Structures are given as C-alpha cells and as structure tokens.
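Quick question: what would this complex look like in 3D?
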Amino acid sequence: MLEIKNLHARIAEDGTEIIRGLNLTVKPGEIAAIMGPNGSGKSTLSYILSGREDYEVTEGDITYNGESILELDPAERASKGIFLAFQYPVEIPGVATMQFLKVAMNEQRKARGEDELTTPDFMRRVKEAAEQLKIDPAMLRRPLNVGFSGGEKKRAEILQMALLEPTLCILDETDSGLDIDALKIVADGVNALRSPDRAVIVITHYQRLLDYIVPDTVHVLYKGQIIRSGDKELAQELEANGYADVIETAA
Amino acid sequence: MPAVQETIDQVRGIDIDQYKYGFETVIEVDKAPKGLSEDIIRFISAKKQEPDWMLEWRLDAYKRWLTMEEPTWARVEYPKIDFNDIYYYAAPKNVTGPVSLDEVDPELLRTYEKLGIPLREQEILAGVQTSKVAVDAVFDSVSVVTTFKKELQKAGVIFMSISEAIREHPELIKQYLGSVVPTTDNYYATLNAAVFTDGSFVFVPKGVRCPMELSTYFRINEKNTGQFERTLIIAEEGAYVSYLEGCTAPQRDENQLHAAVVELVALDDAEIKYSTVQNWFPGDKEGKGGIYNFVTKRGDCRGARSKISWTQVETGSAITWKYPSCILRGDDSRGEFYSIAVSNGHQQIDSGTKMIHLGKNTSSRIISKGISAGVSQNTYRGQVSIHRRAENARNFTNCDSLLIGDKCGAHTVPYIEAKNQSAQIEHEATTSKISDDQKFYAMQRGIPEEEAIALIVNGFVKDVIQQLPMEFAVEAQKLIGISLEGSVG
C-alpha cells in the first residue's frame, strides 16, 4: 500500500538533511508504530508523507497504491486517502468546525468525482461520529480548534478522520497532552476505524498509546533511518530498556 | 456561512483582469465642457434648475476650494490630479432627472439589469426579484430613476434624488445640507460642494420605521468624467432607516475621480444603518487605471439615544481615502463602524473612522478587518476623541489585518485622545499572515489552495459580514473572493 524507498529529505529553507535513506513498507490493514527519541525525524516523516512544502525530497521515492505521490500537493494526497492527525492542530478563527467539515468532505468528494453530500446526510454522519467520540455538539459550532482544550483538539482530529474515511491514517503524537480518559476515547475512535483495507501509522515517543492501539509492526526511527523493525514486543522492550540499547546495537 | 461555496466558485471562475462590471454603455450624452470654473458651476446649477441660493452656496464653496491645498497626510501615492482635465457633468441625453420607469432609456435599463440591480417594480412585486428594496440609480451625473417612491410616500418617507429634493423640499435642504460636513470641511468635500451633480435624499419623519431597505447604485460610465455625488439622510425622532450604496465603473486605462459627500442626521432615538459595497474598478494587474475614491462620510448623532452605524465592504478603487465618522453629540448616543477593506494588485487603501464623543454616556464600537494581497498597501487610520464634557464615554476598537503573500503591507494608525477622566477606551489590534500552518492544515483535509484561502479569509471577516443586510452579505462574500483571485503566488 505504502512504500518508502531510500528516502532522503531536507528542510527546504536551510538544507538540513533530516531523513537519510529511509525504507518502510506498510500493508493494507496494518497498524505500524514508528517510535524513536526526540529529533529522530518522526514528525518530519509525517509532514513529508502528507506533502508539506517546507521539505524537499532529494532522493528516493514514496509510492502509494503503486503510484508515486511526490509530485502531488497536500490536497491531492488527501483526496487519495492520506490523512494526518496533527500533533498540534491548527486554529482557524471564524470558521465553524461544522462548516470546515462540510467543505473538506465535499472537496474530497468532488476530487473523486462524487456528488456533494446533501445537508441531512452530512448532518447525520457528523452526529453519529461525534456521539461515538463523545463530542458535545456545541463544540462543532465553535470555530475550529479555537479555544479547544488539548483533549477536544485531538478528538476533533479523530472526528475528521472518521468522516473523511481515509485509507492511510497517520497519527502524529496523538497521545501528547491527553489524560488517560481522553486517550481511551481517542484510541477507541481509531480502533473503530480498523479495517482490512485501511492502514494506520502511529507515531509516538512512548509505549503508552500502544497499549490501546495495538500495532502489528514497530519500527525504530533514529537519525532519519529505520534502524530496527519488529512486532509489538519491540515496543515493550523499548519501554523497559529505553532507546540506548537499540541505538548501540544498530551502530 | 452557506456563501462559502459561492465564493469559491467565483474565485475559480474569474481572473483578476476580468472585472465583471467593466463594460461600457454606449449612449448619447450631454456633457459640460471639460474643466472647472465658475461658468461650469453655473452650467451644472442651471441643468439642475436650481434656485439661486443653491448656486450661491456652490460658488462660495468653489472660491473657498481655490484657496485650499490637496491633503497629503494619507499613506497613498498617485500622480497629481489635473482638475481641469475632468468633465464635471455628463448625463444620458434627454434625462434631466428621474422620470417614471416607462420613460427611461431602454439602454440604461439594460445596463442596470447587467449590473444585477432591480429597477422594475412590477418584477420585484411579482417576486421575480426576491427582496424588496427601493433603488435610486445614479448614472454619471444624474439620477435616472427612483423606485417605490409612491409606496414610501404613503409611509411619509421621502426618497428621491438630491437634485429633485433641492427643487421640491428647499426648506429641508437649507436646514440640513452642509450641517454635518460643512462646505469648508476638507479639500475634496469643498470641491464636492461646488460641483456635486446628484445623489440621494432620504427623509424619514418622526416615529416612522422605513418599510423597506433603501439603496442607491452609483455608476460612472463616461470617460474622463468625475462623479461627485452628495447624499443626505435625515431620521427624525424615533425614526429608523437602513440604506445601502453600491458602486461600479467600466474598466478604463486612465484614472477617474470620485469625490462624494454623505451626511447623516439622527435626531432623538433615531437610528440610521448605512452600508456600502464599494466595487469601483480597481485598475488592472499592472496598476493601470482605476478609480480615485476620495470620500467624506459623516453621521451626526444629534439627538439623545440616537444611533448611527456604518458598515463597509471595500474591494474596489485604485485609491481609497475614506473615513466614515460619527459625531456623538446627543447623550447616550451610539456610533458603530464595521469595515472590511480588501486590497489586491496595486490598490492603495487609507481608510478608517472617527468617533467624536461629545455627549454623556456615549459609546462607540469599531471593528475593522483589512486584507492585503498582491503589492497593495492597506492602512487603517482611526480617531477616537473623548471631549471634556463627555462623561462616561466608552469606545471599543478592534483592528485586525491579514496579509496574503509577502509583498503587500498593512498599517494601523490609531489616534486616541481622552479629555475626560471617566472615559473607557479599549483598543485591540492584530496583524497576521494566513499562516503556512493554516493553509497546510486545510489542504491536508483535501481543500485546494485557493479554496483554503477563501475559507480562512471568510472566517476572518465573519464579524463584519454579519452586520450587513442579508441580501448583501452573500454579495459581499462573493466580492471578497473575486477581489482576492490571483493572490496566491
């Protein structure tokens, strides 16, 4: 489904290389966890996958369903089914969450050649998804992410994910800033989206989130490369011994 | 905001060079000779069949104007205007003033149809047009038609061109004309007093709530012709009126001058709501052509508990120099200013408001949203002045600027003076760029770049759009979308 081959990428502005020959394959239905110490390039990888302009790919390729996506802009990638749940969701003043959802859903439908949703159909979908994530309908009338608590922001991300029905979900440090109750709600939301044709990449620093979203594969990212891959046992090993052992072995 | 989709469609469909209202109407015109002199003023006054006192008033203003100097304090740059290279009077032939609709030249009716302005009362009444709005249509120097006059008359409301009002209601004109913006006020207002050609007159008598929205559509058609309109609105005790003006002009290579004066008078407990959707030709991509818009607008809250609110959506003109103001004379009176000023291409805007607090317990509110794109310059200039006897005056000002791209400028110049200890003044100002974060976030959700910008901008101006009468809110949103077309690098 997703194939990253010998990827090299740098910050466009100053040329700092962040990703240095990264290889990764994610299959449909797979939940892949990417772990690593701070500064290893985890968030950068999520931005590069979703097409942020601030980074330049200098070598290698990213293919999605057999097709290179390097030339596509973020909106085009989104309509191909790539979704990024942000570590720090962005505030958009004056634009009600509900309105934003409607525009986003309809733009993606348009890009895929589908009809726009009718208002009742849209409302029904939002209501169902919001209930599942225990989101207060009043929150949906507020401007997107403006004045939302940390938990509300993360839930709003998962709500968008549920409604946009992506085929590849990238969760960038979704656990940061969440208390345990909010973490459970968010994890339940993600687990509800598990399906044989949908892949999830969970980017996280800690094992904690992986107790709730159980990964099929775990990959350790360090200095822009995957230095070790394994199954969920690897995450527990990292939790117990820290990253130092893995890094030393790889070196 | 259901209009977002429409904004998006408009943004997509229209190129910056395709100013929608840029067409020219070919019609026979009656013009005064080029240039400005006492004779030209006599010519205009005679054309309007004005009484002698009016001519004297104009000539006094002209003499005064000759001694004045063009103001240079605004942050706008333009080549010196040659006031003798302008036609001061141009009128479609055989129109001396508004007539009944059947007598209006069909070519003119087609022009207004193309502009989307409903002039045919029958169609409006038959529901062809959705909302009922009375319209005064001013074409170059004359008002060609005023709709729903009879119906308004029944309610006691006078709505007619100012030229007609000078002939038919001289006592009201003598009492109020120049009482808010005196002929000595400023360079452009004084010029306007000398040469004004038409505009609207509204009088809402004591206790009457005007039964419909009133509006005037200004159209500059003739080449090298200045438009000098003069509007006077009076709301007597307890009266209410909501008025909207719209403006468009053909696309031309040379600059054209528009210098208007608007005066509002609100007596005890009266309320006037004045909205503007200004869409004069802004000039082309290279900054060629476009209207020079030098306007003096002022409202006088003369009575206790009176209220005047200005709402403006400014998207057009090469240069805008405009400060709709309120004089809060009556105790407990209130002034409001809501503004969206959008500049793109080479446009220059220097606009804002003045709130002059004279009475006790007066309050004012200023919400200004400036959006700059292209290589444009957008300045908010606002004054809040609390006079010595204005006990417990309050002001709240919020000015936000949004920059699109990195070649444009936004400037905020507030002047605040309080001479009374009890004054409460709050001023908030922000400048932000449509951040790469916001744009990336929206695009990551599948919203293409131009639509993402339109969405973010619509969110930014929401507070002001909500102040516009319903029918115009949608139009204004579309206009903002169109104005920003091509702003994405």
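Answer marked as accepted. Chain B has one domain: 2-483.
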